[in-house]
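Feature request, filed as a ticket because there's no other form

It would be nice if the structure record came with a short human-readable summary line next to the tokens. Right now we just get the raw output. Example of a typical job, pasted below so the devs can see what we mean:
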Amino acid sequence: MTRGLLVDSHCHLDFPDFADEEASIVQRALDAGVQHCLTICTHVTKFAQVRAVAQRYQHIFCTVGIHPHNVEDEPETSAQTLIEMTHDPKVIGIGETGLDFFYDHSPREQQETSFREHIAASRITGLPIVIHSRDAEDKTIEILRDEMGKGPFPGVMHCFSSHARLADAALDLGLYISFSGIVTFKKADDLRKVVTSTPLERILVETDAPYLAPVPKRGQRNEPSFVTHTAAKVAELKGMRLEDIASITTDNFFTLFSKAKAG
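Raw output as currently delivered:
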């Protein structure tokens, strides 16, 4: 693994926002030193197109899962169905899954059932689960603790923007914390405190592209090359060089998503 290069641990390259310039976006990321990307599945019914993006590029991997927003509209999906989809060599994680009580686009009970199925698939396969949590801290902690009691599973709290209490609970359970461009936003002081208190060996960086472009790109469509700005802010908060944070977060990515390294 080349030192000093970055990984965008969470983006959505299959989204229509990128359709007309996918190759250019991927090349800009490489030019910026982003050596790998993980493109995230949000609908099992669209898994084929997510996988197709990953298959077009040697350095891009993907996941399989259902975003909590989409649970009501997607077919009911069991852990076994998810597991079957993970047999593809490009699939290195499960999700995005979790809970979103801010928008409530899907009924909360259905979100919880889906979340637990994804966790079961993670536990059985050993592939990391990619967790979304918004305005659902108490229930997220409850489910994670309950499910971890049934047997361990790896995972990451993606695009972390919650309170330290959720971060601490996740870290106690052995999970990683991934920070997005939100850490660069003017009013994100509480989140920056979470960055400073999170152990280096548990930190990932991501874009969540096309959303949440970091300062100085805020207001633009986000893309994987912009993860450099997020990493630079994390480095600043940790009092470290960008090159060192890049190396650490890249190592962390391949430790967590070990199937990528094996491939």
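Something like this underneath would help us a lot:
Residues 116 and 166 are 18 Å apart (CA to CA).
Strands lie at 6-11, 34-39, 60-64, 91-100, 129-134, 155-157, 176-179, 203-205.
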